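Hi F.,

I've been meaning to write this up properly since the lab meeting, where we talked about keeping a consistent format for the predictions we share between groups. The idea is simple: the sequence comes first, exactly as it goes in, then the structure tokens exactly as they come out, then a line or two of notes. No screenshots and no reformatting. I'm using this chain as the first example so we have something concrete to point to.
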Amino acid sequence: MRVIWAYGATDPETETSVEQHVKRGTKSVILLEPPVDRDSLPHDVQSFSLLNKAVRLPKQETYYWCQMYKTPALKEKKKHHVVKFGPLLQRTSRGIVHHMVVFACYGQLADAFHGMGYPCYTDQEPAELASCQHAVATWGIGGGDFYFPDNVGFPIGGDGDPTFFRLETHYNNPTLREDIVDNSGITFWYTGTPREMEAGILGVGYEVSRMLIVPPKVDAYLITGVCHPRCTEQAVPEHGIHVFANMLHTHLLGRKVRVRQFRNGTELDTLGRDEHFDFNYQQVRLAAAESTIHQGDTLLVECEYDSSERENVTFGGIDTKNEMCMAWLYYYPKSEFASCGSAIHPIKSVRALKAIDIDKTVFARPPRNGEQSWFDAVSGLHWKKEDVDALQDIQTKVRILNQCLGRTTSFYTNVWLETEFPLESYASLDQVDTCKDEEEDPFPNTDHGVNSGVGVASLSLSVMLLLLSLSS
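Output, unedited:
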């Protein structure tokens, strides 16, 4: 909820002598969040900061900057545990730094990468850094410090721990200011006394790509990202993983976010829930009670959007005016499991939109005479209620593209799977579109089985990068 506050310059002398309030504002808070003992840090705690290096913002609304760091040399060459992290924001950048994510790199990288900075998601990114996609710390605007539970820490400094970190910063600059030079970043507090459990982070939701489509002029439109039971069957350890915190994420249109969990056809308690999502308050939140994800569980990330003030369709993507639907789940014990996401291929969406001539629409090559790209076709559609209803209806009634990724490997990528939703409100399997999709293959040069390469993402970006490259 958002609290309105105000106070005066002096304390009132009596109950009736309240002076005019000269200080006022608003603050987003979660009143029912579990309390945190902020004095519980270990006696030997130390800290290091990963900071941007004089990043001059260009004259554009959305800008992503990536900064590389070699894992700091610790005084003692042994395993340590991170027990707290939080933002270190430059005063002049407050409100402009929208979110920051720290990704871990595993394996050997050249020392020359230390200190390197470059615009994220561009051809300026060195190929050697493509595997640095495992999120280890997340912060969003309005959020504060995050304290790990007393028995949990994130490991650094030991064998198999991160060798480099990459700080990704999303700048939201709607007034196109050119006078900002930013040095913000993230601070980590760590201890040389390892805790009982080591933490991992799992990214779940809808793939960050143009395949996420929100029609205009709709006050409640639902997008569903699926972590399929095939993925949890392969990626979750035998005894499960225990979720103790979450961070939910959409952009400007997001109003509600839920992370739902199903086991053997039965819905369990939500893993994360915000029925009043605030774009300007995105905080890692401790769960009131831990939940366990077992092999074969289904996870759904549901995002409800309000596009009633948008004149045009909104696509998924990394820009602030694009949309996302995702969640990061903090869990223990640490495992290889890092990312699970889904998307509906645009040929399914266009097929549902009867006003578009699918025979003159292309999906994975430049258009030729008389043709148009699917992106242009959807962008130019004059939306009617039946179009919105048709697109909403297929969210749970068509086969999906699913990805299941680890920190250093892939369980599988770009696999067509049935939407096996266990609730009556979703389509049963005999209603699912079971047509063969080989001719609709959006990845004609890739293997739909297990990917032997290392294409790891916090939420996989491989789909996004392909779709961004398609003609529009």
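Notes:
Helices lie at 229-235, 346-352, 374-379, 385-393, 462-469.
The chain has a mean pLDDT of 84.

If this format works for you, I'll send the rest the same way.

G.
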